[in-house]
Amino acid sequence: MSLRRTFEENPDRRYIMFGGKGGLGKTTFSAATAYWLATQGYKVLVFSVDPQASLSDIFQRDIFGKGAVEIMPNLYAQEIDADQRIKEYQNEIRAKILDMYGLEQVPEEIENYIQAAAAEPAMEESAIFDAVVDIVVSADYDYYIYDLVPLGHALYYLSMASVYDEWIDKITALRTEMEDYTKVAAVMQRKKESEEDAILRELQYIKERINKSSGILTDRQRTAFFFVVIPEEMAILDTKKAAGLFAKYDVPLCGYIVNRVIPESLGQQEIPEYLRHRLAMQKGHLATIDRELGKDVLGYIPEMERDITGLSMIEKMAHEMFGG
Amino acid sequence: MPEDEKERASFLDTAKSILYGMAGHDMSRYAMKTRGSMEHLFILITMGDLLGIPILPPYYSLRILPYVVPQISTWKRRMLRERDLTDALA
Questions:
Q1: Closest partner residue to A181 among B35, B60, B67, by Cβ?
Q2: pTM
Q3: Which residues of B touch A89 (CB under 8 A)?
Q4: Into which CATH architecture does domain A3-84+123-176+205-322 fall?
Q5: What is the pLDDT of residue A317?
Q6: Tens digit of pLDDT for each residue in A274-285?
Q7: What are the tens digits of pLDDT across the range B16-28?
Q8: Residue A188 and residue B49: Cβ atoms within 8 Å?
Q9: Secondary structure, 3-state, A112-137
């Protein structure tokens, strides 16, 4: 099965993700896939969930924190500025407090909490997570391509969805129980209907957003997750380990793409000993890949002669991945 | 409303109030007290960071912060208060 056929035979899969160790070519594949789909006439958004995003580099345009930027017809790219989003969010919370209680200034204790919360390590990821929900629920595009973070982070990102989900379930249950007590007291005191619990409403809103996001990540009909691997021992071992973990989170794994394959035809030419060794080593690892992942490999992409940046190189990459 | 009916209504009201005082008041007080405890538990699991107990995701707990602003100081007082034997009797 080729990568192209996977797309053609599963037209419902509109959320595309590439995962893998850092530096193996996730961003490159994301950009090239977005490029190919755009040339097929689909409206595509490729966006980065990595705080150290590199879409700006690959498209050679500064798109950081600028929303969805049109790169070429049908192709849009977006890098989320988590810091900016956190700042706006903090201000929103402050404004709400001032407005609700008619205050001139946020009480010191509360202000400290708002600032401390923003410094939490999980805050950045959470902000990006929330921004992604905004992006994917908008339904403005035919395809959404997630330029994912390296494996460890991606797992964290996925597990965050399930942790959030459980956390929210528990506190929503507690809140509902609290409502019951309020009602009992109100009935006994012969008061009219108790006022609606604004917090409960807020919790339900949060829950809905989390479910939407984690729902997409684990939706077999609409989501495709591809692993990027290179013919090197460590990469193969790590990828296999990660694939096992991802499967545990019910992520719909759709196959592997082997990147950076040194063309074997080089072997027939006059090449230095060093390169000959690398070719021999690669042959061994390719055999391992074929043996262990064989039927799920969707393509072998050759090592390019230069960096993949700019649209013409992306086009070349798309050609290697999807054919003409 | 004729005079005697009005009297009857006010008598009924008084009777209800007395009955409530005898039976219902304690129960509703208990319900409110339980709710108060739960409120504090709720703030603990959402705003635990305020006491230095990071419980869970700070991003979404900030959304809830505006609603619990008035309760925060009593909550902190209660959580950080020293406890003794008489607490068990309360």
A1: B35
A2: 0.81
A3: 59, 62
A4: 3-Layer(aba) Sandwich (3.40)
A5: 95
A6: 999 999 999 999
A7: 888 777 777 888 8
A8: no
A9: HHHHHHHHCHHHHHHHHHHHHHHHHH
